[in-house]
Structure formats: C-alpha cells, structure tokens
Design a protein that fits this description.
mainly alpha; Serine Threonine Protein Phosphatase 5, Tetratricopeptide repeat; 8 helices
C-alpha cells in the first residue's frame, strides 16, 4: 500500500521539525510534489529546503510554482524573494511589499513568518539573503 501525498507531507513536516537533514527531506518533498502537483504547501516546503541547501536556481523555479498556485501565501513569496536574491535576479520588492501587507492584516501570519525566518537562520547561520529579507520585513 502506498502512502498518500498528504500522509507523506505530514511525515516530511514531522521529520523537518525533528531536525532530519535537509538533504534527506528533499526527495520526500519532491515525491509529494509529484503526487500532488497542485499543492502550494508542498512546493513552498520544497523551495525552502532547496534554499537551505544553497540551491538557488532549483528554489527559484519551485518557489515560482508555489506562488502561482497560491499568490496570497506569504511564505511562498518570501521563498521566491530569497531565491531572487540568491540567483541575482531583480524583482524582490513586489514580493516583500505583498508579504508586508499580509502581515499587517494578520498578526498570526506575522508571527509565523518571524518564526520561519528564525528557523532558517538557526539551520543556516549567516544566511545573508534571509537576513536581508528579515530586515526588510521587520526592521523597516
């Protein structure tokens, strides 16, 4: 019996929270994306994992897909903004402005974004692109 995409996704999130190596989680999330090609959450997570591994080009394509599937999701926009920075592309400002607007409407999303950025810096210290995005979102 094969696991459902949702079950694999939940397993991947649990493993991520438990601190499993990112390199081991990428294939799992790729499989979830293959099984559920309309799951913005799966593509958002995969893009984040790519960013943590320093794979900016893969993260860029994956984050674009996540944003296309769910344009209002702040984390997918943040991932795309970081991927822009990591790959030297222009276009970051629009995504940062949209995330800022969403965070002004929802304190819960604001807190979630803050926690995700802090998690990223714990897992990848001295991550310059993420530090820039955090500054734009919380120090301006």
């Amino acid at each position: 019996m094969t696991q459902s995409a949702e079950s694999l996704f939940d397993q991947g999130i649990a493993r991520y929270k438990a601190g499993d190596p990112v390199a081991e989680l990428i294939p799992l999330f790729k499989e979830v994306c293959d099984r559920a090609p309309k799951s913005s959450a799966a593509f958002t997570c995969l893009a984040w994992l790519y960013l943590l591994e320093g794979k900016g080009s893969l993260a860029f394509k994956t984050a674009q897909r996540a944003v296309k599937l769910n344009p209002q999701d702040p984390q997918s926009r943040i991932n795309l903004a970081i991927a822009y920075l990591e790959t030297g592309k222009k276009g970051v400002r629009d995504h940062i402005e949209l995330v800022t607007q969403v965070m002004m409407v929802s304190e819960e999303l604001r807190q979630e974004v803050r926690e995700n950025l802090e998690d990223g810096l714990r897992r990848r210290p001295d991550w310059k692109s993420l530090e820039r995005v955090r500054t734009w979102l919380f120090d301006s």
